[in-house]
Amino acid sequence: MPHRLANGALPQTRPSRGFTLLEILVAMLVLAIGLLGVAAMQLRGLQYSHDAYLRSQISVLAYDIADRMRLNEANATDYVTGLFMVPAVAPAGCAPTATGVVNDLACWRVQLFGALPPGSSADITLAAGEYTVSLAWDNREGETRTIAYTFMP
User: Fold this and answer.
1) Is 144 exposed, middle or buried, given 0-12, 13-18 or 19+ CB atoms closer than 10 A?
2) Rounded CA gap, 28 and 109, in Å?
3) Residues 73-112: pLDDT tens digits?
4) pLDDT in tens, 28-76
5) Inter-axis angle of helices 21-71 and 101-115, to 10 degrees?
6) pLDDT at position 82
7) Are the C-beta atoms of 68 and 112 separated by less than 8 Å?
8) Where exactly are the structural domains of the chain?
9) Would strands 130-138 and 84-85 be described as parallel, antiparallel, or unpaired?
10) Cα–Cα–Cα angle for 112, 133, 61, nearest 5°?
11) Which of 137, 72, 65 has the alpha carbon at shortest distance from 107?
């Protein structure tokens, strides 16, 4: 039974104002979960953006060596040299004004070094009259991605 004042009236209760500590903690928890979700989406977006960047670089590199081979069609089979791994330090030997298979491959390898992460690989093969330029790299998730372009010079 509530306590009555001397005149018999019930005491006035003050309306509660503001938030309780528990409400604030729950709101902060919901906000933190939301921010973690936004951060995870941002990270995935960056990974996909980097993957798309590498794909565009690979397209440019594949078309570059294909054009070099078309310009030197008489010696196109000399471009088939086997697997090349992108090193951690820049390869030497490129003379931008020189011509020929050796210089074309040297310049292409310098371009590979500048565009792809170390450990990536490049290969040019010939089968049934068609050349295939295969470029592979490891993405940030540890998966090996390979893109191959097949053409005839």
Assistant:
1) exposed
2) 53
3) 999 999 998 899 999 898 887 887 888 899 999 999 999 9
4) 999 999 999 999 999 999 988 988 998 999 999 999 999 999 999 999 9
5) 180
6) 86
7) no
8) 57-151
9) unpaired
10) 35
11) 65
Cα-based distances in Å from 6 to 3, 10, 11, 12: 10, 9, 10, 13
What is the strand order of the sheet 144-151 is part of?
84-85, 121-127, 130-138, 144-151
Tokens of 114: 């500048």
- Examine the pLDDT at 12 and tell me if it is beyond 80: no
Query: What is the structure's pLDDT at 94?
Result: 83
Decide: 26 and 20 in contact? Cβ < 8 Å.
no
Q: Any idea what the Cα angle at residue 150 is, between residues 148 and 153, rounded to 5°? A: 140
DSSP 8-state class, residue 15: P
- 85-95 b/e with 16+ CB inside 10 Å = b? ebeeeebeebe
Lowest mean pLDDT among 8-12, 53-57, 133-137: 8-12
